[in-house]
Structures
1.
Amino acid sequence: MVSKDMLRLGRVRSAIRELFEFGRKRAAIVGDENIYDFSLGNPSVPPPAALTEEMVRLLSECDPSALHGYTSAPGSNETRDAIAENLNRRFHTSFTRRNLYITCGAAAALTSVLRALTVDSSTEFIAIAPYFPEYGCFAATAGGTLVVVPPDVKNFQIDFDALEERINIHTQGVIINSPNNPSGVIYSEATIQRLSDLLRKKSAEIGHDIYLISDEPYRELNYTDQPVPFVTDYYDASIISYSYSKSLSLPGDRIGYVLVGNAMPDFEDVYDAIAGSARVQGYVCAPSLLQKAITRAAELNLMPDLSSYRKNRDALYEGLSAFGYRCMPPDGAFYLFLEAPGGDGDAFAEAAKEEDILIVSGRSFGCPSFVRVAYCVAYDTIIRALPGFGRLYQKFCK
Ligand code: PLP
């Protein structure tokens, strides 16, 4: 006998994975070059050359038992010190190793945090659409429930009235993601300020802290000259989930961290509960080689090269807008969130398959009348896919 919930999760692939697998099958028939696969958020730029050099050096020079041995459960002191110092230099914060727990990417960071904050089966976490679909099963598996705030489709910031309506005594946390997957929108400073004010007010009303869980795998993928607001500056009960999957193009290497802000009320309890949650889920001692690699990345302050994403974004945004498509100009991450011509994201994404264009319906992000186009692909793929997007537009808008 097995768990019904786990069986369902294991058998039913996410819509994104499903589409990716469809693309693999089609590619075997029509050839890789004739599939325009905009389904997955797999970075298309290689990791920074300096990081690859460091990893080669680590492998060839380090004592193997030091390189491959266990570190302490939350990560080595060296790694956590280097990350804390890097953040302090960049954001004028005052973190130490004690703020950080190194994890296997943002997924492990989030599951560790959600489980740590789930008090009992009445616990609720709020996500703001559009949101990363895995939040739903992460919250449910932690033992709580995900409550979704409908999107503010005018500008994909936050519909504060709708958010306030959903906060109640069971609310433990609000999950935000900026720069956002899938909208590409960055929450403005005014949004973060207003959100913090609202959470303070509602925490006082319901008699316990509402945690702000900021999921930030795209923090450095910012095409504007405005910094992404750093949430611990605005709200005391802030927890950051970070990943190097996108910023350093290391998605398969599974490395990231949880950061608990210094002003967190009951800091020790919150941090230690996250450590306990990570422990029961098997996320102790993130891969040692990768811990050393991100230590060097922090020391060298390695950043992503945004030039090719920016070029892709501009070509896609301008090309699609010229056909008549509508979307917010994406300021960050590497996604463009289109209003589906005809208003049905499922139907539009399905029709796009006939052009061998793979895009994801917005339904699983909580926005069924949109589609997500992941532009972390070769520039040439965008240029060659545009005529197909043009035909699709004509089909749905004639
Ligand atoms: N959160 C968001 C918003 C994401 O887009 C992703 C991955 O695409 C994740 C979390 C998971 O990231 P990781 O690969 O580091 O587990």
2.
Amino acid sequence: MHSGKVDLHMHTVYSDGFLTPKELVEKAHSRGLTCISITDHDTVDAIDEVKSYADKYGIDVIPGVEISTNVDGVEIHILGYFINHYDSELLKYLKFFREERYFRAKRIIDKLIKLGFDISITDVENEAQNSAIGRPHIASALLKLGYTKNFYEAFNKLIGDFGPAYEQKIHVSAKSAFKILNDAGGLTFIAHPGNLKESILKKLIEWGIDGIEVTHPSHDRYKVKFYRGITQQYCLLESGGSDFHGGAKDDYHNIGKYFISTSKVEAMRKMISKNTA
Ligand code: AMP
Ligand code: ZN
Ligand code: FE
Ligand code: FE
């Protein structure tokens, strides 16, 4: 493995990102990244395409995915790395999660219609195409229909976690997500823990989380220090990345800015070989 910058958290058009695999790899290369992981929500469809472009630049691609889970009623995102993205059980679960995303989008649209918006699920499907539907697609549809001035306004006024058109997805428990990801040969990480309650953090550690996403745009240096301390205290792995989505999300400044070193990836590889020994 070569030295360089590593970004283990990125989204493509296969979930709610705005860049195609080709565009994303070109952007990653231009920002000096030498190892990336695509962590689309509930889909691994981008990975092979990303690999085919990344090979050209000598960029390593670690198969990844981001799964939304539920712990004590709190939505916790779990990142899986080094998964076998052809594993049929994994693919079966991801398909199920994507179906739930579709039904939840319909519930959000119903709420928006009741609030007086002239929007249909087709508007959202046009944004999502065949990818895993997320709230960003709804935000894009609202923006296109002229109901909002920018991408973020939809979240702030309507579909954010406390907004009038918000609907929860049904999520698996984190413990089940660990099993699904571990069975597919992957390691599990808590994504962007932010202000995670200590009781939840303790549970995730007890249930066998492999690591924590320490570097993330939503973490200030105190949080980085805090979560790095937790990884050291509990012998956990450390990951990090930009959580880049692109497009209307306008987070281009984050690519190449939020990264980890290759030594962190080497530690993950060591853990994988220990697990399979
Ligand atoms: P979903 O998985 O459908 O609940 O959508 C979650 C995604 O929406 C996250 O991964 C973010 O990309 C985006 N998101 C959530 N909250 C906000 C927000 N307040 N502003 C902008 N994007 C957001
Ligand atoms: Zn997302
Ligand atoms: Fe997330
Ligand atoms: Fe993400």
